[in-house]
TrEMBL record:
<dbReference type="InterPro" id="IPR002173">
    <property type="entry name" value="Carboh/pur_kinase_PfkB_CS"/>
</dbReference>
<dbReference type="GO" id="GO:0008673">
    <property type="term" value="F:2-dehydro-3-deoxygluconokinase activity"/>
</dbReference>
<protein>
    <submittedName>
        <fullName>2-dehydro-3-deoxygluconokinase</fullName>
    </submittedName>
</protein>
<dbReference type="Pfam" id="PF00294">
    <property type="entry name" value="PfkB"/>
</dbReference>
<feature type="domain" description="Carbohydrate kinase PfkB">
    <location>
        <begin position="3"/>
        <end position="293"/>
    </location>
</feature>
<comment type="similarity">
    <text>Belongs to the carbohydrate kinase PfkB family.</text>
</comment>
<dbReference type="GO" id="GO:0019698">
    <property type="term" value="P:D-galacturonate catabolic process"/>
</dbReference>
<dbReference type="GO" id="GO:0042840">
    <property type="term" value="P:D-glucuronate catabolic process"/>
</dbReference>
<dbReference type="GO" id="GO:0005829">
    <property type="term" value="C:cytosol"/>
</dbReference>
<dbReference type="InterPro" id="IPR011611">
    <property type="entry name" value="PfkB_dom"/>
</dbReference>
<dbReference type="InterPro" id="IPR050306">
    <property type="entry name" value="PfkB_Carbo_kinase"/>
</dbReference>
<keyword id="KW-0418">Kinase</keyword>
<dbReference type="InterPro" id="IPR029056">
    <property type="entry name" value="Ribokinase-like"/>
</dbReference>
<keyword id="KW-0808">Transferase</keyword>
<dbReference type="GO" id="GO:0006974">
    <property type="term" value="P:DNA damage response"/>
</dbReference>
Amino acid sequence: MVRVVAIGECMVEIARPEGAPPRLGFAGDTYNTAWYLRRCLPDGDAVDYLTALGDDPVSEEMLGAMRAAGIGTGHVRRIPGRVPGLYMIHTERGERSFTYWRETSAARCLADDPAALAAALEGAGWVYVSGITMAILSPEARARLLAALGAARAAGACIAFDPNLRPRLWEDAGTLRRVVTETAGLAALVLPSFDDEAAAFGDADPGATAARYAAAGAEVVVVKTGGGPVVTLDRGGRGTVGCEAVAPVDTTGAGDSFNAGLLAALIGGAGLEAAVRAGHAVAAQVVRQPGALVPVTV
Ligand code: ADP
């Protein structure tokens, strides 16, 4: 049995499709991956979500949704007086735009208690974090989380990291680059998206992204290219794995679900190329349906 702990922020999602009533949901990059991991892993494996929520009714509802999805909530911190972050997806002439209210969300306190972090990561086989997880934390909390990840790694856990670069969430570009590189250096698996990486780090091509993270200390790097071939780099060298051409309806959650399919396959013992194909197989189903969290067959 493997226990995976995903760490980050789950938000209230208000989706406003054109010509239809608004829909309420709960989503966020690392939460989406936890949600798909739960679907991709066998029942015997455990998926826990580590975040912080408030003591309000919306936080209660979110916790209920996590439990209903089969995700462990035993390490969710409760911060009296704080509330979850929120975002709205506005659609106009088929174009989606996202507006966020997350500056004071409870999740920003997820790494405030080092003892709670250590307890949550004890016995974890894999720990999954993203650049968004790091971005929303204070510099002190980032340092606490990095120390906890380092300790988990020393105790035998593997760290999986999607840089998921969102420059607007960071105080400045230099801090983004420094923290993302440091986190990747702890990781057994780094899952960057090339367009974001090129913008933030100036990488010339996906191979350069993979080489940069490998040089930072990452063991395996899988570079996503928005539906193009994925570039992999591990001790066996560089590889390319194409993906099936599909006409996407909504790419929200594509990368998150790809990461889950890939990680679940690796945990199940698949080789890297087969794991990438498993990631594509999950993501291909997700991009064909509207919404971040949709039914998939694994
Ligand atoms: P991210 O959201 O992290 O940037 P990508 O957009 O690169 O991730 O997509 C991740 C995966 O989702 C791809 O590797 C592919 O499997 C699937 N995917 C995304 N966009 C498309 C597309 N236009 N056509 C087919 N598959 C896609």
